[in-house]
Write a structure and sequence with these properties.
Oligomer: single chain
Number of strands: 14
Number of helices: 10
Mean pLDDT: 92
Helix content: 25-40%
Largest sheet: 11 strands, mixed
Order of helices and strands: EHHEEHHEEHHEEHEEEEEHHEEH
Distance between the termini: 76 Å
Low-confidence stretches: 81-86
Radius of gyration: 24 Å
Structural class: alpha+beta
């Protein structure tokens, strides 16, 4: 018989999901068979798999040493931290932390870590050999406390919202399971308010909320906006709010509220009403983009995830964020272009 104790970052999830993480090579059928036969118990009792595990719960496995090690990678009689791994299972995290430059920590506590991402860095991997903000986060945590390496064997902190590679700004990350669950809940229920800053073509003088339906084209990795889609089943409802901060005849410095968060929503939605983002090669003006490249070396859409505001929360991990606003300052290039185009009225 072998026993494991549920840790802080394993608590709060279904028992069957916990078992899948502890026994990554075991199939679902095997896990449920072992539960039915009481070869796996929770706190000394038969379990169904749907229970929510709590910190300090005891899980017992009535397996042979060979079976236990086969499915868990943990040598019987040793702690989970002694799981057999490659010589340096965190090598890619350390490498990402060293190689990805310009990332800043905006806020951090035991449950959350908010980062400012520069344009040009992926939020999450697109291919197995990519280095992304997600790997940088793990490398950063290791640089602060080497004991995180043991924690990674049962829980991986992760980014909870995604930005396009060439969109800069604020990314919310969960350091604990409870923190990740809270951020995911806020994003899903749209209780966290997300605001972006950009410079778009044309003059906008009034605030507005605009609606539409977004339709993806997987072949070209683009989207289009329609007011009345012919095939509603393929369309996603979107809502975008905007407020002009400063405008000239040719450009507007704009704050955009992302009410729904869909692929390329801000870029395509503003382009659909005649105000594409400067530098946007998918939805923007080729003539304007060429000018921005020549004058400011801008080769991507100028879009920055500027601030988020959290809902009021009276208890739990969310209490630390209750009603608070966090922001990521403009990148240097954004500030330079803003000064040249809008503040000085440059045409």
């Amino acid at each position: 018989m072998q026993a494991l104790t549920v840790g802080k970052n394993q608590a709060g999830q279904r028992f069957d999901k916990y078992l899948h993480k502890v026994m990554p090579t075991a199939g679902t059928g095997f896990i449920y068979k072992m539960l039915r036969k009481k070869n796996i118990t929770l706190n000394g009792r038969k379990a169904e798999g749907s229970e929510i595990v709590a910190e300090g719960d005891t899980v017992r496995f009535f397996f042979s040493d060979e079976t236990f090690e086969k499915f868990t990678g943990i040598s019987a009689g040793k702690a989970p931290s002694e799981k057999f791994t490659s010589p340096d299972p965190c090598k890619e995290y350390r490498k990402a932390y060293q190689s990805l430059q310009g990332i800043q920590v905006i806020y951090e506590d035991q449950n959350f870590c908010f980062l400012a991402k520069p344009a040009g860095i992926l939020t999450q991997k697109a291919k197995p050999d990519d280095a992304s903000l997600n790997e940088w986060l793990l490398g950063y945590l290791l640089s602060c406390d080497a004991s995180w390496e043991k924690e990674f064997k049962v829980f991986h902190p992760s980014v909870c919202n995604r930005l396009d590679r060439n969109t800069s700004g604020l990314v919310l990350c969960g350091k604990s399971l409870a923190g990740s669950q809270y951020l995911s809940k806020c994003i899903k229920e749209r209780t966290v308010k997300k605001f972006y800053r950009t410079i778009c073509l044309g003059e906008i003088v009034t605030s507005a909320f605009i609606n539409g339906f977004l339709i993806k084209d997987e072949r070209t990795n683009t989207v289009r906006i329609e007011k009345h889609p012919l095939n509603p089943s393929q369309a996603e409802f979107i809502m975008t709010g905007y407020t002009p901060l400063k405008a000239t005849r040719d450009y507007t410095h704009l704050e955009v509220e992302l009410v729904t968060g869909k692929t390329h929503q801000i870029r395509a939605h503003l382009a659909s009403i005649g105000h594409p983002l400067i530098g946007d090669t998918k939805y923007g003006s080729q003539t304007s983009n060429q000018k921005m490249q020549e004058r400011y070396q801008l080769r991507h859409q100028l879009l920055h995830a500027y601030r988020v505001t959290f809902p009021v929360c009276a208890e739990g991990v969310g209490e630390a964020l209750s009603g608070r606003t966090f922001l990521a300052e403009y990148p240097k290039q954004f500030q330079t272009i803003l000064t040249g185009l809008v503040k000085s009225g440059d045409r």
